[in-house]
From TrEMBL:
HAMAP family: Dephospho_CoA_kinase. GO terms for biological process: coenzyme A biosynthetic process. Keywords: ATP-binding, Coenzyme A biosynthesis, Cytoplasm, Kinase, Mitochondrion, Multifunctional enzyme, Nucleotide-binding, Nucleotidyltransferase, Phosphoprotein, Signal, Transferase. The keyword Plastid does not apply. One of its GO terms (cellular component) is mitochondrial matrix. The keyword Kinase applies. This is Bifunctional coenzyme A synthase.
Length: 558
């Protein structure tokens, strides 16, 4: 069967049956759609009438919240590669629905991605119905949404017959309990790399809001304690993804997305807000909001609590719930962005530039890569070689800084030389302008030697890789990162210096965020050594795949 980039799934099963069907339906849909899957709910829809089927308003009921949560939870387990979005334009409270007479779709809704295929769980009794149901399904989808002109359709029901017995055991369902809705609803969060738990929170909030939905997005101070905070998407990018998602889900709402520099934002000062949607772990924050509102003379908000989504694929260092921090952890060792073209750089051997701040564990990673078969080029060692008597750098340094930097045996006293440049940016620049080009020449020499030995991968272990401008020597930049407070502890323990001296050393280097801006791959040594080893193995295996995928004509001959 052909694969489509974007599809829309029309669910017609009764609400009491849908929870049983979600998993097999998503499994089948994932075999047809590969990027974005919109979900449109219309329980009880009859697609075999042969006539024009019109969408109707679906009343918001408590069971819908559970269904939405179940759907995103199943999607995370079954088809995590899909961007699943539950659409709510046709879900409206009866009192609100009566105010408009043209139905939920007076004109077809424009989605962020135009559906190329429409799918449904509608049950067909015999194959003779297929053509009729397919035509009716396409008309229905086009009435609701602007679709691709060549819209295809897929009936999933033949693949779902194995769950019919479970459906029968589900019962007919009791009277559905209406969901309390509110004019104005508020939520808050980081919303990094929008995932199923975020979507559950946002969808249920949209379900409960009739007029306005306020979303506070953590920024600045609130991000400082986050795991791998340097990998958090920029604020503007998170906001753009929120806007795209929300405008698809329920375009009739007024959305206000605001930055949060404190835990409360507008939730403690906006008199029109009526409800705040929280999770199990953020309920205390919601209660704190209400205490502040009372202090400010405002009515308390209704706290609506949703369940956390469990992450069936979480690793030992990850949270059991679906979370952004876990997703950021999984990015370690993967290719974050494609390498910049280096037309003047020989493709054989493939050169990794590995950098990181003091205490980041950069050299331990380099040794691990060396154990896997890479040639390690230690730029710190090459720096010592560049100062040896008789080298070009030796003569230039002595001429620039004077003979008083020499020991009795005519070697350069690095401590004396360091004293001449410490705290003097101009003199430090004079020194690096001499030494860095010489180290770069030595790196080139080591790479050439590796090529002659038939080596496929070199790792340039260089703390100043980026500051020195050596990226022209490497195909990819890998960055080792560690939180600043952990780096300080390591430096103090390793070098026997005071905390303030360790911190001063770190402040003189590029910060993690600046290094990661240039990174193709990021690794973190915060956890146990075996966790670091797993990251390195993943990075190494993915690197081998990238090297293998190079066009045949540029691969090194065996």
């Amino acid at each position: 069967m052909s694969m489509f980039s974007t599809g829309i799934l029309v669910l017609t099963s009764p609400l009491h049956i849908l929870p049983l069907r979600i998993a097999p339906v998503l499994t089948s849909a994932a075999q047809v759609v590969e990027r974005t899957l919109y979900v449109h709910l219309h329980p009880g829809l009859n697609l075999s009438t042969g006539g024009q089927v019109r969408p109707v308003y679906i009343p918001p009921v408590v069971d819908l919240c559970a269904l939405i949560s179940r759907l995103y939870s199943n999607a995370a387990d079954i088809c995590a590669h899909l961007d699943v979005r539950v659409l709510l334009s046709n879900v409206r409270a009866q009192s609100v629905a009566l105010s408009g007479s043209s139905g939920p779709f007076p004109t077809p809704q424009t989605l962020s991605h135009s559906p190329e295929v429409v799918l449904t769980d509608y049950p067909i009794q015999d194959s003779g119905q297929s053509s009729l149901v397919t035509q009716c399904l396409q008309k229905y989808a086009r009435h609701c949404y602007i679709c691709n002109p060549t819209l295809s359709s897929v009936l999933l029901y033949p693949r779902l017959k194995e769950v019919e017995e479970d459906d029968d055991r589900g019962g007919s369902g009791a009277q559905l309990k209406p969901l309390e809705t509110f004019s104005d609803v508020v939520v808050g969060g980081t919303f990094d790399r929008l995932h199923g738990a975020h979507k559950t929170l946002l969808n249920i909030s949209c379900l409960m809001a009739n007029r306005r939905f306020v979303i506070g997005v953590c920024d600045q101070e609130l991000l400082k304690k986050k795991v791998l905070k340097e990998l958090i998407e920029p604020y503007y990018q998170r906001v753009q993804k929120l806007q795209d998602f929300l405008n698809d889900v329920k375009p009739s709402l007024k959305y206000e997305i605001v930055p949060l520099s404190d835990p409360f934002g507008p939730s403690i000062s906006d008199p029109e807000l009526q409800c705040i949607v929280v999770s199990e772990e953020t309920r205390k924050g919601g209660e704190a909001v209400n205490r502040k509102r009372v202090e400010n003379g405002l009515a308390e908000l209704v706290l609506y609590e949703i369940q956390l989504l469990k992450d069936a694929h979480h690793a030992d260092i990850e949270e059991e719930k679906i979370s952004s921090s876990s997703l950021r952890t999984r990015m370690l060792g993967t290719l974050l962005k494609h390498p910049s073209p280096q037309p003047d750089l020989p493709l054989d051997p493939y050169v990794i530039g590995l950098t990181g701040g003091s205490g980041s564990g950069k050299s331990s990673i380099a040794h691990r890569l060396e154990a896997l078969g890479a040639v390690r080029i230690d730029c710190d060692q090459l720096g010592h070689e560049a100062y040896l008597p008789g080298t070009s750098a030796y003569h230039k340094v002595v001429q620039e800084f004077g003979p008083d930097i020499l020991n009795e045996d005519k070697t350069i006293n690095r401590r004396v030389l360091g004293g001449k440049v410490f705290g003097n940016q101009e003199r430090l620049r004079a020194l690096t302008d001499i030494v860095w080009p010489e180290i770069a020449l030595l790196v080139k020499k080591r790479i050439k030697q590796a090529k002659e030995q038939g080596k496929r991968v070199c790792v340039v272990d260089a703390a100043v890789l980026l500051e020195a401008g050596w990226t022209y020597l490497v195909h990819e930049v890998w960055v080792a990162t560690i939180p600043e407070e952990e780096a300080v502890k390591r430096i103090v323990q390793r070098d026997g210096v005071k905390e303030e001296d360790a911190l001063r050393r770190l402040k003189s280097q590029w910060p993690n965020a600046q290094l990661i801006e240039h990174a193709n791959v990021v690794l973190c040594t915060l956890w146990e050594p075996d966790i670091t080893q797993r990251q390195v193995l993943k990075a190494w295996h993915l690197l081998q795949q990238r090297i293998q995928k190079r066009p045949e004509e540029i691969r090194p001959s065996p």
